[in-house]
Amino acid sequence: MHWRRGEQLGEGTFGKVYLALNERNGELFACKRIGLAPDAGAAELHELESEIRLLKTIDHKHVVRYLGTELRRSEGLMYLFLEYVPGGSIASMLAQFGVFSEVLIRIYVTQILRGVRYLHDRKIVHRDIKGGNVLVNDSGVAKLADFGCSKQLQGMRTGTLEQSLQAIQGSVPWMAPEVIKQSGHGRGADVWSVGATVIEMATAKHPWPKFSNNLTALFQIATSTEPPPCPDSLSPAAKAFIDRCLQIDPKDRATAKELLADDFVMNSP
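The structure assignment produced for this chain is given below.
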């Protein structure tokens, strides 16, 4: 593909994201620039490219589409081409507009769950659901972004150990206890993160707000027998929904399919 890079749109866990132009058809898309570790082997790159080819088959209204890749091995770079979603993320909307109404939370969580169920039905675990990774287009349609490749990229990105820890810590308040304890990272971990994202939308803050230090939050989540506090402002239905997501034992959590039948979601406009 012949393409040209434009302005920077943001910076994710694994690299900077730019607006890009397809010079053959005029299509705009997002381009994520990822620095690869100098010792990234051919087998690792092949595994990553194979997974991205699989992700290119994903086609759902509430999941950002992967369009392709370009590897520049001599420069130590890989470019991921993604669907461009104008409008920003839920996190950026919260920063601009403040706490969402419960009606709006219902709308967005329903759309998020539809995307999560679609991925889970295809045995894909998102791994990093949070407001910053849910993009919203100018028609109010929410789409899950930054899914699928995080495990592979974590071991291949360049940078110092400190940078790697910062990348992980950025998502700590949304992480399930078993992820932090490295005892599991199945579909239940995504469900926990959905519940944490509902708290984020209801408060315009990350879960566990009293822990401003991510390392403190890391320890708290790993050792706590209680989930993060639920906002008092929410309705009983919303609190019950969050409770179904934030069970300490992942076996006790509802599935995305079950949550789509929850009273809180079913009352969505």
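Interim note for the steering committee: The beta strands are 3-11, 16-22, 28-35, 66-72, 77-83, 134-136, 142-144. The two ends are 41 Å apart (CA to CA).
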